[in-house]
Specification:
Keywords: Membrane, Transmembrane, Transmembrane helix. This protein is an all-alpha fold. Helices cover about 75% and strands about 0% of the residues. Helix 1 (about 1-30) runs antiparallel to helix 3 (about 55-85). The longest helix is centred in the last third of the chain and has 31 residues, at about 55-85. The protein is elongated, with a radius of gyration of 16 Å.
């Protein structure tokens, strides 16, 4: 059972990161950022560097930041759960 929970939880967090990357691509497209061979500039976009200032783009950026925030926050309980199930805490 614990393995299933960790599998689903980890997959959900990876899916959340994928959503954040897709939002980053949309923000870059709206901002006219040319990025070479299409790598997502997560950190400059998250910090509002080189991003269009219109309301819709900023809304997308805030949504992306929220998804990026959920990734480490979501993995923390997963690690605690895994350690608890192994009897380490």
């Amino acid at each position: 059972m614990a393995q299933f929970v960790t599998l689903v939880w980890g997959a959900a967090m990876i899916g959340n990161l994928i959503v954040a990357i897709r939002l980053c691509y949309a923000i870059e497209a709206r901002s006219g950022v040319k990025n070479g061979p299409q790598y997502a500039n997560l950190f400059p976009v998250a910090l509002n560097i080189g991003v269009a200032r219109d309301a819709e783009t900023q809304r997308l950026r805030r949504k992306m930041n929220l998804h990026l925030l959920f990734v480490p926050i979501g993995f923390a309980p997963l690690i605690v759960f895994a350690l608890y199930m192994e009897g380490m805490i």
